[in-house]
């Protein structure tokens, strides 16, 4: 299964990706998680990404595309992959097409998670993210067993800088301006499936699997 998850900030891409990656036995590749891991480790890539992430804007394609190309060079993508947060504009989609064409690894599907803005704000204002593995949880909707501690790896939970209201508004605008066009792009190729991102996490996972089969 070679899959892209697309949807606005807070749609639940990261949450669903964990379950879908496990179900299909494929690596979960989140460009946001890779940038945040680099930021945490103080790498050059992290420094390049930080100013853009703090403003809720896209990291330049030159940086992002190279990073993804590099990641898709790993042997673990032989049985497929789940891309979360990439591509995010038409140029990235075209570059990805070229990378996959060169590797003779065509995409199987693009799954869109649909959600309204009011729900997005509820989700992101209560989100907590694991400092170690990047897994999201929620102080009300997806409570960790122990407050402040990641269920998956026991890492410490923190609140993402870009979940603050001003930055969040910018992220939503960028999504409509730059990312929505790729939905049409994939629809043209007959790859698009969409499901509602509202409801229980497990319900949504079941709907996603049904849509992908
Ligand atoms: P990125 O990390 O990709 O952020 P995003 O797209 O804005 O998406 P989020 O991670 O905020 O939301 P999500 O859909 O994963 O939701 P989640 O599962 O956490 O990107 C961050 C930044 O990095 C970008 O702004 C940009 O600067 C840069 N970047 C990344 N990729 C790039 C690219 N390709 N090009 C250029 N720049 C790039 O869920 C949200 C919350 O809701 C959680 O608290 C969760 O517990 C809760 N929740 C989930 N599902 C449910 C449910 N069913 N019911 C109730 N609560 C739920
Ligand atoms: Mg995410
Ligand atoms: Zn963790």
Automatic annotation (TrEMBL):
<dbReference type="GO" id="GO:0005737">
    <property type="term" value="C:cytoplasm"/>
</dbReference>
<keyword id="KW-0545">Nucleotide biosynthesis</keyword>
<dbReference type="Pfam" id="PF05191">
    <property type="entry name" value="ADK_lid"/>
</dbReference>
<dbReference type="InterPro" id="IPR000850">
    <property type="entry name" value="Adenylat/UMP-CMP_kin"/>
</dbReference>
<dbReference type="GO" id="GO:0044209">
    <property type="term" value="P:AMP salvage"/>
</dbReference>
<dbReference type="GO" id="GO:0005524">
    <property type="term" value="F:ATP binding"/>
</dbReference>
<feature type="binding site">
    <location>
        <position position="36"/>
    </location>
    <ligand>
        <name>AMP</name>
    </ligand>
</feature>
<feature type="binding site">
    <location>
        <position position="160"/>
    </location>
    <ligand>
        <name>AMP</name>
    </ligand>
</feature>
<feature type="binding site">
    <location>
        <position position="171"/>
    </location>
    <ligand>
        <name>AMP</name>
    </ligand>
</feature>
<dbReference type="InterPro" id="IPR027417">
    <property type="entry name" value="P-loop_NTPase"/>
</dbReference>
<keyword id="KW-0808">Transferase</keyword>
<keyword id="KW-0862">Zinc</keyword>
<dbReference type="InterPro" id="IPR033690">
    <property type="entry name" value="Adenylat_kinase_CS"/>
</dbReference>
<keyword id="KW-0067">ATP-binding</keyword>
<feature type="domain" description="Adenylate kinase active site lid">
    <location>
        <begin position="127"/>
        <end position="162"/>
    </location>
</feature>
<dbReference type="Pfam" id="PF00406">
    <property type="entry name" value="ADK"/>
</dbReference>
<dbReference type="InterPro" id="IPR006259">
    <property type="entry name" value="Adenyl_kin_sub"/>
</dbReference>
<feature type="binding site">
    <location>
        <position position="133"/>
    </location>
    <ligand>
        <name>Zn(2+)</name>
    </ligand>
</feature>
<feature type="binding site">
    <location>
        <position position="31"/>
    </location>
    <ligand>
        <name>AMP</name>
    </ligand>
</feature>
<feature type="binding site">
    <location>
        <begin position="57"/>
        <end position="59"/>
    </location>
    <ligand>
        <name>AMP</name>
    </ligand>
</feature>
<feature type="binding site">
    <location>
        <position position="127"/>
    </location>
    <ligand>
        <name>ATP</name>
    </ligand>
</feature>
<feature type="region of interest" description="NMP">
    <location>
        <begin position="30"/>
        <end position="59"/>
    </location>
</feature>
<feature type="binding site">
    <location>
        <position position="199"/>
    </location>
    <ligand>
        <name>ATP</name>
    </ligand>
</feature>
<dbReference type="InterPro" id="IPR007862">
    <property type="entry name" value="Adenylate_kinase_lid-dom"/>
</dbReference>
<feature type="binding site">
    <location>
        <begin position="10"/>
        <end position="15"/>
    </location>
    <ligand>
        <name>ATP</name>
    </ligand>
</feature>
<feature type="region of interest" description="LID">
    <location>
        <begin position="126"/>
        <end position="163"/>
    </location>
</feature>
<comment type="subunit">
    <text>Monomer.</text>
</comment>
<feature type="binding site">
    <location>
        <position position="130"/>
    </location>
    <ligand>
        <name>Zn(2+)</name>
    </ligand>
</feature>
<comment type="similarity">
    <text>Belongs to the adenylate kinase family.</text>
</comment>
<comment type="function">
    <text>Catalyzes the reversible transfer of the terminal phosphate group between ATP and AMP. Plays an important role in cellular energy homeostasis and in adenine nucleotide metabolism.</text>
</comment>
<keyword id="KW-0963">Cytoplasm</keyword>
<feature type="binding site">
    <location>
        <position position="92"/>
    </location>
    <ligand>
        <name>AMP</name>
    </ligand>
</feature>
<feature type="binding site">
    <location>
        <position position="150"/>
    </location>
    <ligand>
        <name>Zn(2+)</name>
    </ligand>
</feature>
<keyword id="KW-0479">Metal-binding</keyword>
<keyword id="KW-0418">Kinase</keyword>
<feature type="binding site">
    <location>
        <position position="153"/>
    </location>
    <ligand>
        <name>Zn(2+)</name>
    </ligand>
</feature>
<protein>
    <recommendedName>
        <fullName>Adenylate kinase</fullName>
        <ecNumber>2.7.4.3</ecNumber>
    </recommendedName>
</protein>
<keyword id="KW-0547">Nucleotide-binding</keyword>
<comment type="pathway">
    <text>Purine metabolism; AMP biosynthesis via salvage pathway; AMP from ADP: step 1/1.</text>
</comment>
<dbReference type="GO" id="GO:0008270">
    <property type="term" value="F:zinc ion binding"/>
</dbReference>
<feature type="binding site">
    <location>
        <begin position="85"/>
        <end position="88"/>
    </location>
    <ligand>
        <name>AMP</name>
    </ligand>
</feature>
<dbReference type="GO" id="GO:0004017">
    <property type="term" value="F:AMP kinase activity"/>
</dbReference>
């Amino acid at each position: 299964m070679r899959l892209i998850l697309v949807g606005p900030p807070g749609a639940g891409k990261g949450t669903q990706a964990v379950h879908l990656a496990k179900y299909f036995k494929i690596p979960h590749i989140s460009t946001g998680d890779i940038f945040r891991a680099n930021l945490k480790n103080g790498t050059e890539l992290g420094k390049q990404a930080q100013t853009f992430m703090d403003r809720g804007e896209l990291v330049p394609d030159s940086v992002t595309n190279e990073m993804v190309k590099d990641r898709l060079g790993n042997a673990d993508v032989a049985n497929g992959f789940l891309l979360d947060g990439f591509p995010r504009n038409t140029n990235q989609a075209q570059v990805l097409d070229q990378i996959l064409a060169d590797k003779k690894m065509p995409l199987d599907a693009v799954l869109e998670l649909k959600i309204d803005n009011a729900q997005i704000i509820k989700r992101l204002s209560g989100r907590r993210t694991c400092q170690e593995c990047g897994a999201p949880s929620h102080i009300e909707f997806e409570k960790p067993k122990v407050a402040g501690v990641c269920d998956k790896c026991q890492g410490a939970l923190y609140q993402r800088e870009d979940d603050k209201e001003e930055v969040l508004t910018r992220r939503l605008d960028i999504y409509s301006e730059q990312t929505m066009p790729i939905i049409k792009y994939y629809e043209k190729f007959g790859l698009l499936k969409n499901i509602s991102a509202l409801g229980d996490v497990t319900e949504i996972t079941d709907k996603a699997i049904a849509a992908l089969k």
